[in-house]
Specification:
The structure is a single chain. The protein has 103 residues and is mainly alpha-helical. It is built from four helices and no strands. Helix 1 runs parallel beside helix 4 and helix 2 runs parallel beside helix 3. It is globular.
């Protein structure tokens, strides 16, 4: 079994910072960046679970749901990753998205 603790921690940290961010920061792009990350993580999960099947896109549930969306998508991905290299890549992707979001 692969240790996904770092991925869960990275996702939780990003989500916590989004929840603490002022609405103005969410409106200036942090929520959009989080939604893009959630969609990317969900797509990655679906591609691992069902290769060759067209992934479904995570819906936009609004800026105040973005933290929850990355939490769900990140934890779903953590369940299906099979190597430490995949975990490291996921942690990198989350970190970059958090930097772009500015939180």
């Amino acid at each position: 079994m692969v240790d996904t603790t770092r991925l869960i921690g990275a996702v939780d940290q990003f989500a916590d910072r989004l929840r603490a961010a002022p609405q103005s920061r969410l409106q200036r792009g942090a929520a959009a960046e989080a939604l893009a990350l959630a969609r990317a993580l969900a797509r990655w999960t679906q591609e691992l679970e069902a290769p060759g099947v067209e992934p479904r896109e995570m819906p936009d549930a609004g800026m105040f749901a973005a933290a929850d969306q990355i939490t769900v998508a990140g934890r779903d991905l953590a369940v299906v990753l099979t190597s430490e290299a995949e975990v490291e890549e996921a942690v990198r992707v989350v970190g970059e998205a958090q930097k772009r979001a500015g939180v």
